[in-house]
Structure formats: structure tokens, C-alpha cells
């Protein structure tokens, strides 16, 4: 079997996750490039197939080796952990939060065991996780903890633009305090290794500026002068191909044109705005530094439209596409059981 095998936890049952999984796995583009294994609940997926109005047949399996590589077949590992009658579509639910965590947990187990090549995740809800007594704020933290990866690297990919993030879920004030020379050096080193693992070995990484016009040599802030410039100088002495700081109002455009192979965004929204303005639905998150490849849609549970059959599967399809594209670069130390 030459196709990569991708596990897809179906996300929060009260959100659009199950619906977009059904729509994506009914798409011939997806079935042509990957063998997908949904991780979820049979009853939830039966409901999602009806909502999505797709001619799919569920094939219950216990392990990926039992999956059928046929159009119109949705291979499902059924955890049988929730019933649609026990929750309301589009509403925060502890039952759904707990169930969504268990789907992710199973997908990680499969990936760590070498039974799948990658994991492509669907939306979960932070409030539902909390209500279900799941002590994680989101996917990245779950994957980090369950794989023993202390600080996973998030990378966005949209078209040929790749964006890494020096800081993630902290306040803007705290993010500015975290723009330090040593942190930048550490991140560029790790981001470069992540790119190499994805097969990206050529090109230069750019460091985005923090302040307007990268501070204009201290006129609008000292972070660039005191932290970013020294970090870039040290990295160049270490042999890394890196430039910066480059004004954030132009660096993402330049990277899109191919001048840079990636950009290190200094805070969450700086990179998110650039990627999602370019193409909201096709912005895909790739979590680097894990023992395996993980991609994800970069939108939420969309409770306002859950259950209405109108959710777009474009991002889910793209997440599977990116996983299939990069999976061959992740060399296994194991053999699949067929």
C-alpha cells in the first residue's frame, strides 16, 4: 500500500467536526491520495453522514490493517463513548469535551504505535474540554503532553507560505516580554530542523519585526535592537540562513513570493492574520517536533452552524492533503502489518 494512512479524530460531536469528516471522506481527491481512518463514535458519524447528505457506508474496524481502500467507505474505529441524544448540537457539553479528548488520545496511540502515518485533527471546544474535566487548553498541549514533547512547534502552511510562532496563547503584553535573543535562537534552530524533517532544506528563514518598521533602530521600541538583531547575528555565525528583523507589513508577502522559505512570527495574531487573510479555509496548522506528523484545520467548532449541513470541508480536505504531502518525509522505524 503506497498511500499514507491518516487517522482523523472527529472532534467535538456537538460541532461541525463529524460533518466535515463525512464530507471530506466522500471526496475523491481525498480517497485518491490517502487512506483515512476516522476515530469517533458510530452513532455520531451516522448522524453526521445524514447531515452531510453523503452516500457513505461506515466500515467498523478495530485497527488500521482492517480498513477498506474503497470510495464511498468510511473506515471508523468506534469508541462508542457518547450518544447523540445525550447532547445538544451547537452547545457546550462536558460529555462532548471528554469524548473529543478520547478520540485524540486514540489517534495519538495509533501514531505512536506506528499504525498510521499521520494525524489530521478536527475542531474541539476549549469550554467543553473544561466542562469534561479535561485539563488541556487545546490540541497542541494535548499532543505535547501525550507524546512527551515539552514545546511543540506550530507551523501554518497556506499555499507556499510557512509561518512559525515564537509565542502562542499568551497576552500581547506577555508575548512582547518573551521576545528574547536566546528564545529566538532556540526557535530558529528548532524550526530549521522541523523544516528539514518536512523535506524543506533550501532557502532562508525571515524573522518578523515586532514594532512598526521593525522599530526604526529604536525610535518605536528597543526589542529589535536589543534582542532580534543580536539573535540573527549569532544564528548567522552558527551557520543558519536567516534574515531579520523584516517589517511585519511586508515579510509575509515576500515569503509568499518565494524570497523566504518561512517566517518566524513573534506573536500569535501577527502570523494568524497574514495566513488567514491570504486564504482562511486553506490555512493549515502543522505541529512539528512530535514523534509523528500532525496537521489540523485552523477553525473552530462553529457551533452556530453545527447540524445544519452547511459547513465547508475545504479546510479538512486541505489538512489531509498537507498530511499526505509530508508523510513520506517521516521515515518509520517500524513495519505496517500488511
UniProtKB/TrEMBL annotation:
It is an enzyme of class 1 (oxidoreductase). Homodimer. One of its GO terms (molecular function) is metal ion binding. This is 4-hydroxythreonine-4-phosphate dehydrogenase. The gene is pdxA. Its EC number is 1.1.1.262. It comes from [Clostridium] cellulosi. The lineage of its organism: Bacteria, Bacillati, Bacillota, Clostridia, Eubacteriales. Keywords: Metal-binding, NAD, Oxidoreductase. Belongs to the PdxA family. PdxA2 subfamily. Its cofactor is a divalent metal cation.
Amino acid at each position: 500500500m503506497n498511500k499514507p494512512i491518516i487517522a482523523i479524530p472527529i472532534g467535538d460531536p456537538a460541532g461541525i467536526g463529524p460533518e466535515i469528516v463525512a464530507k471530506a471522506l466522500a471526496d475523491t481527491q481525498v480517497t485518491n491520495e490517502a487512506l483515512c481512518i476516522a476515530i469517533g463514535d458510530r452513532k455520531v458519524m451516522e448522524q453526521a453522514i445524514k447531515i452531510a447528505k453523503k452516500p457513505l457506508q461506515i466500515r467498523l474496524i478495530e485497527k488500521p490493517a482492517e480498513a477498506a481502500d474503497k470510495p464511498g467507505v468510511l473506515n471508523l474505529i468506534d469508541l462508542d463513548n457518547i450518544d447523540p441524544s445525550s447532547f445538544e448540537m451547537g452547545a457546550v457539553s462536558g460529555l462532548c469535551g471528554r469524548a473529543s479528548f478520547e478520540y485524540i488520545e486514540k489517534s495519538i496511540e495509533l501514531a505512536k504505535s506506528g499504525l498510521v502515518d499521520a494525524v489530521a485533527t478536527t475542531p474541539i471546544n476549549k469550554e467543553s474540554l473544561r466542562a469534561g474535566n479535561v485539563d488541556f487548553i487545546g490540541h497542541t498541549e494535548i499532543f505535547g503532553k501525550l507524546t512527551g514533547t515539552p514545546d511543540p512547534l506550530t507551523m501554518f502552511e497556506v499555499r507556499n507560505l510557512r509561518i512559525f510562532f515564537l509565542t502562542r496563547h499568551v497576552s500581547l503584553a506577555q508575548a512582547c516580554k518573551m521576545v528574547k535573543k536566546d528564545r529566538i535562537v532556540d526557535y530558529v534552530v528548532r524550526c530549521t530542523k522541523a523544516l528539514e524533517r518536512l523535506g524543506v532544506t533550501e532557502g532562508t528563514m525571515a524573522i518578523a519585526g515586532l514594532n512598526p518598521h521593525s522599530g526604526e533602530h529604536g525610535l518605536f521600541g528597543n526589542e529589535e535592537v536589543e534582542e532580534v538583531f543580536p539573535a540573527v547575528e549569532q544564528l548567522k555565525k552558527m551557520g543558519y540562513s536567516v534574515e531579520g528583523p523584516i517589517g511585519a507589513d511586508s515579510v509575509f508577502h515576500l515569503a509568499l513570493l518565494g524570497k523566504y522559505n518561512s517566517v518566524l512570527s513573534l506573536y500569535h495574531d501577527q502570523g494568524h492574520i497574514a495566513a488567514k487573510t491570504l486564504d482562511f479555509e486553506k490555512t493549515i496548522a502543522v505541529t512539528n517536533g512530535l514523534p509523528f506528523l500532525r496537521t489540523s484545520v485552523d477553525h473552530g467548532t462553529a457551533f452556530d452552524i453545527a447540524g445544519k449541513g452547511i459547513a465547508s470541508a475545504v479546510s479538512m480536505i486541505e489538512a489531509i492533503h498537507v498530511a499526505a504531502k509530508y508523510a513520506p518525509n517521516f521515515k518509520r522505524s517500524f513495519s505496517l502489518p500488511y
